[in-house]
Amino acid sequence: MTYKRRFITGILIILVVPLSSVILGTLGFWLQLGPDDKTFLFTLIDHNRIYIFLSFLIFTGILGYIAKWMLFQYFIPLQKLAEDAGILKSAERLYTIETKGAKELKQLAVILSRHAYEIKELRENINEKIRQAKNDLEEEKNILTSLVSELNDAIIICNNDGKIVLFNHHAYQLCDDPDADDFQNRIGIGRSFFKIIPSEIIRHALEEIDHKFRQGQQNAYTQLVYPLPSRVSARIRIIPVSKGKEKIGFIVIMHDITAELDKDLKRHEMVESLIDTTRSSVAGIRAAIESIISYNEMQEEQRVRFNNVILEEAKRLGAFVNETIANYKDYFKLNWPMEQIEGQSLLNLLHLYSKTISDLKLEVKDPENGIWVSVENFSFIITVLYLLRQISTIAQNTISLELNNENNFMYLDILWKDGILNHDQFNQILANPVDLNNVELPFSANDVIQRHNARIWLNLSENNLHSIRIMLRAADAVTESVKKKQIIYGARPEFYDFDLFTSDNLDEEWETRRLASLRFVVFDLETTGLNPSDGDEIISIGAVTIVNGKILSDRYERLVNPRRKLNKVTTEITGISDAMLQDQPALDKVMPSFHAYCEDAVMVAHNAAFDMRFLKLKEKQLGFRFDQPVLDTLLLSASVHVTQESHSLDAIAERFGLTINGRHTALGDAQVTAEILLKLLPVMQEKGITNLQQAYQASKKTYYARIKY
Q1: How many Å is the Cα radius of gyration of the chain?
Q2: Is the pLDDT assigned to residue 272 strictly greater than 60?
């Protein structure tokens, strides 16, 4: 019931009581009169009817004036005063209460505004303390996300419903298909992981883990291989997340094994080829040998022929083995994990192990502070020691080892005097297998250098100071400043949301779910005009996602080619020109990705009837249905702030102290609409509007609900 109806109802109730008393008294008086008295009374009323009628009009007019005065001086201003006082709690900036009512209410408005200023200062102090506490908590979370982000494997953490709670950048790269303009398989906070891997597979894996737990296995997990939407084959490890005895989610660790599977296939091909060719050659050799053994009296000419067969088959087999090794040698190399090591530590290790080389005199120069390199310690150290031993056979003096940073490149230099090493000898040393004392690697120094993405060359100097220089990959030093920077980098609001561990069940009916637990997609359209039925088209779509009261940076923004010219007014309002749309895709190319972006979410818009009209008219043509719930911030605002004069986007934003960046751009309007929704939700909750069904009912009672789409 609106405030005007409540007022009229109150006035009628006030009038009914005295009028009922008058009517009952008059009726009792009338019943007591005799026939002559009644005739006299009728005659008296008839002679004075004009005065009685005028008196009734005057009484009614005075009563109406008093009612109107009370309505506009007290009742309406009082209602607006109550709403303005509620807005004070949500407004970003200081909100001044103004009223056109009675003097007493104006004084009350001044007092409330003064108190609002004092409350604002107090709130800022409290909020500062809350922000500090949140920052401390967020810093701890950010440390976790930073650690997870730096892991080589892709990490995704989900709640029991499959909603993504946390993921790192590797997971985004591994799961996302860069060639597809599609949100169907894109990961994001609050999105379903079951779009990446079907829920049946995850459920089966978790049931297998439960079975292992029941069998007494601690720290049980399960592992599987599955092709991801990005056309990557991944080894996937699934680990449950528990809180006490209750399982609240699961962790997914993914590793790209596409290259490994390719190597396995190549190895299989090589083995099959080796088996077939070797079997054939061995059979020929065996047959020739058996013939020689069986016929002792074989003539010399035949014996020579069989010997030649054996020799040719042996040569063919040897050549084939060498060719196979050459063709498939890359598939025998180890998958070396690179490690970050401080320059000083690397030189210390080289100096320590150099003592195992006899007749080697090594001098190590301390590097600059902060030098870090990325190497596979074992293979690299063995290779450098191998080079040092080769140089020690020609150098007549002490060999020096230095690590320098020049123009952000790391150089390891082996320097010596006298003893010239020509380039042919140097290339031969690099081509030979690495052999050092009792350690022999199955690859050459060149292989090790290439595996490190490094470069190596020989420098011969005229002043008798020669060197071998190795250019290495640099690695950031783990200094305090870097740690701090990593923590800041980890503060990505959309990379984690631990509150999703307490989300509602996805199978629950839309209407009865709490508004605070829903995933919202707030969107806006820019169009060529206002009449989709007359041929106006969409030219821009912008949308943002809200999960657990936070606006994610997983935004959607697309320009759409309407295949028609824009009028001057549209360009002036939206800032979009024909040239900007010329090379953009048409709506039939854009709509699949937008439909996927809105999936499993409540759609929200300001004056949603307008935007939904455009989408609904395109459903049959494009084959996409938007059948999820839709909320309208215009109707929601009108349902909770009934006395406010305007519920336009600009007016609501001004009331809440929100700044609109990019007005009349799809993404700019969607962003401020999302901020308005977050301001309205607590106001709605105070008024008992806590789920979708109640939000619909409240919206339908507003004046604006007559607009249909």
Answers
A1: 42
A2: yes
**275 — pLDDT class (breaks 50, 70, 90):** low
The first and second tokens of residue 656, run together, are 């809440």
Q: Which of 630, 677, 629 is nearest to 649 (CA)?
A: 677
Contact of 223 with 209, CB cutoff 8 Å: no
Task: Extract the tokens encoding 317.
Answer: 């087999």
Overall pTM > 0.70: no
- Distance between alpha carbon 147 and the CA centroid of its chain, in Å? 17
Residues in the chain, how many?
709
> Mind listing the pLDDT tens digit for each residue in 23-54?
787 777 777 777 777 787 778 777 777 877 78
511 contact partners, CB below 8 Å, separation of at least 6? 629, 691, 692, 693, 696
Whole-number Å distance between alpha carbons of 638 and 585: 37
Q: Are 551 and 520 in contact (CB under 8 A)?
A: no
Q: How far apart are CA 67 and CA 333, in angstroms?
A: 94
Query: What average pLDDT is seen over the chain?
Result: 78
pLDDT at 502: 53
In a 3-state reduction of DSSP, which class is residue 412?
strand
Dihedral of alpha carbons 600, 605, 607, 611, sign: negative
Spatial separation of the C-alpha atoms in residues 646 and 642, rounded to whole Å: 10
Catalytic residue numbers, as ranges: 664
Q: Which two tokens stand for residue 498?
A: 């631990």
